[in-house]
Amino acid sequence: MADHQDDEDLELALKMSMQYNPPEPKRSKPIEETGSESQFGGESPEAKTRRLQRELMAAAAEKRIMSLPKSPPAQPKPRALALPITVANSSNEMGSGVGLELSPEESNQLFTMVFGNEVSKSVLAQWTNQGIRFSPDPETTIGLVQHEGGPCGVLAALQAFVLKYLIYFPDDIGKGSPSLGVRISKNPYVASDSFSSIPEEAKTRALVRSMCEILFMCGNNNRAVVASFPNYEDLNTNQKDEVMAAGLPIETASDLQKILRFETFTTQSSAFDKIEGTITAFQSRMGALLFLISALLSRGLDTVQNDRDDPNLPLVTAPFGHASQEIVNLLLCGEAVPNVFDGRIDFGDGLFLKGISKNVEVGFLTLLESLNFCKVGHNLKSPKWPIWVLGSESHYTVLFALDPSVQEENELELRESQIRRAFDARDQSGGGGFISVEAFHQVVQETNIRLPTEKMTEICAMGFIVWSELWKLILELDRNLGGIKDSSGMMGTKMFDVYHFNGIAKSDINGGGQAMAVEVGTVPMQRPRLTKLTVSVPPKWTPEEYMTSSSGKDSEVTQPKPAQHAPLVDCIRTRWSRATCSWAGDPPSIV
User: Fold this and answer.
1) How many Cα atoms sit within 13 Å of 163 on the Cβ side?
2) pLDDT per residue over 334-360, tens digit each?
3) Half-sphere exposure of 197 (CA within 13 A, CB side)
4) Which portions of the sequence form the region Disordered (predicted)?
5) Is residue 541 helix, strand or coil?
6) Which of 122, 139, 191, 504 has the fewest CB atoms within 10 Å distance of its CB?
7) Could you report the per-residue pLDDT of 468-522, keeping only the tens digit for each?
């Protein structure tokens, strides 16, 4: 009788797994878990039904995979990922596609590194219920959709690289395999903002190229480790759909070891082929976590821990399960450092904080800088391509431009950047904006500033030099003395367009009839949103304006009221100070 009931449950689960059931909306608060009895005691009948369906679907998918023919027993012993991985020669690199298994120690180290020793079921549900998929809406078809809170840091970083290929390298994503050369060609897809015209095949190749680039970057451009499910390539289409719909249960390190396999590649072409062949696995509900694990293994688990300032903290932060800055930095620059300033700050006695050591392809801006909680360095603020992951207190989105000239600096900006970089290189205050007198003399010599004797004495009188005071002097100093005196006040004016993408699809608990909301049953659902903004960056202060603003007589000169305002504008101003923005429709959201 019990066997008959199990067969009926399995049959029901298989039927449900072939149907599309949208994930639960993003949660803003963790689920209370005070015990196994109380955890589900107060849930609604609808929530209970969805939970039971997910459990049945997961059991069916796992049972189907485990019932497949096993690989030949002559399988290599799992390699220690904490150490450099020895890779077979390239001719055998793809192997049979079975992959290697993590040892129990490696699985425990990986699981604890990501989730910590105590992780709630709600956080695990968030990270095992998020695939890497493009939006089905024509207006946001280039964007990756987020259904659960937490993995947005992984999706946003990957989204930034996808946009790089779609906008600036359309020829590359039309080729069968990646090439190492970088070249720019006219983009036939987005020349007229027609994002919906991008073919599905081009988007998929951009995604695969992005994943390949990120994993090799994490592996110091020497290797990429691709994680997948066991025997996944042997599944037929229907079985792959089961995994996509149901996901696989992961609650412990042992669960992770059971379902995870990995392969190591030393050429981009072979890694590209592998990722392209298993892209459905990354589109499954395990996709975001699977890609994060691939990045961590590519970097090496011990190396990741060495990157961090505090390796005892989990990479997924409690209690809401957000991706940490270390995860975002790993995917943007290949190093799991926790800070966003350039280089590192040395406190002596072997104590130092680690930041971004090199310039990056796509960058990062954060609302927290506008609130004076941190200082984003030049490496992240001025990336090679005008694409930025944007961080708020609880979410990551993406800002990008179609024209790379938005980052080009005019004469004043170039001079300011030169002096600021020299200043910041000697700023040991963690971005506080002041340096010692000795360091100031080095800045003056390096940047060829020739201050009059009385000005030099005045600025050094306090025993330290504040950036705002130095910049005031530079603006008042003639150009032939190394300054940027501009009596016209017009030098530096620019105007350009940028786009903001927020991939979250969640329930609109506040109602209000947002422009991008649609009705699903009785619960309004917010769709991903792409917003075009026109940015106007006024010229720097002239000496007269600076003096006026500092006296408080005309605050509108230094803090102009923008035509429209939202927290996104504050974030944009950390890159282009005093910028004003305008857009059509509702204010763009960064949460």
Assistant:
1) 32
2) 999 999 999 988 888 888 899 999 999
3) 10
4) 1-50, 543-564
5) coil
6) 191
7) 889 888 888 888 888 887 665 556 578 899 999 999 875 444 333 344 444 444 4
